[in-house]
Protein: 2,3-diaminopropionate biosynthesis protein SbnB
Organism: Streptomyces nitrosporeus
Amino acid sequence: MLILKHGEVAGLLAGREKEVIDLVAAAYQRHDEGRTVLPHSVFLRFPDRPRDRIIGLPGYLGEASHEGTGAAPAPGHRGEEASGAGEVAGMKWISSFPGNVAAGLERASAAVLLNSLDNGHPEALIEGSLISARRTAASAALGARVLLGGRRPTGLTLIGTGVINREVLRFLAAELPGLDSLAVHDTDMARAKRFTADHARLLPGARIRHCATLDEALGAHDLVSFATTAATPHTGLDACPPGTAVLHISLRDLTVPAVLGAHNVVDDTDHVCREQTSLHLAEQHTGGRDFVHAPIGALLRGTARPVPRDGKPLVYSPFGLGVLDLALAAFVRDEARRGGIGTRIDGFLPGPTL
């Protein structure tokens, strides 16, 4: 069993935003091609503690298509290609305890377990909070790519100033070179100012604006990222400029009218229309899912019609597919093996049976 700690994962992912975005894009395309097995996430909740939860995300990501490449994966090397093209199976187990923030702790903690596809044995246990945050941010960067369609945004607005929007800022800076204006809003203004002081280096030289109200923030730029701990919808999008691209990462910020008044892109319709997300509420309200334009995998593959550009908000709502965590965890595992990084635990499993 290979054990990888947080610091080791951070070192292996440092400066590799472009590779991670490409890996996530490939995983979405493989999912759209039907090369995944992705049961619904399991939500463990607690009596009298509605904000706290632990989520299990099992999954299997099949090998990438090699059609037209003339290359096939080498036998015995599942999941070991640097490109992340191999197959992988396992599970992410991630907790969200919002009260941790006031105690100076991270809201989320996670572990990813990878299993061998030769014998099913668990083979790697990887600290998963950074993997989870960076695959989420890479997904957001892809969402921005699809929604913007090559258009340069006026700047970026971040709603919520926690770990996820820190990583979204990091990945959008890689995806959109030249981004030079940042607006932030948080229910705690002091927290917002600490965020920009700590992370301004991610967008060097950018003009920074701290917005006192949500509507001020929504009106500041035509690219917005929501990453909050909202449990119920609390805002529309009327304050946004026409055609604003909205990265609805936290999934429960937008009211039903806001969802129905936008062009909606998702990662997987079945997954996102559950657990009282804004899109789930919209489905309950309308009795259908016609308000969903297309999944991002189909848009990346060119098998869905492009998102209309008619001035309506363009909203990307990714539920967060476990296969993204597995793809990135396998990438980290393979890089660790190549570099001799991590702790190897022998004798974790029973020995061979005679």
Q: What stands out?
A: DSSP finds eleven helices and 16 strands in the chain. Residues 64 and 85 are 5 Å apart (CA to CA). Residues 2-63+85-131+322-344 form a domain with the ornithine cyclodeaminase, domain 1 fold (CATH 3.30.1780.10).
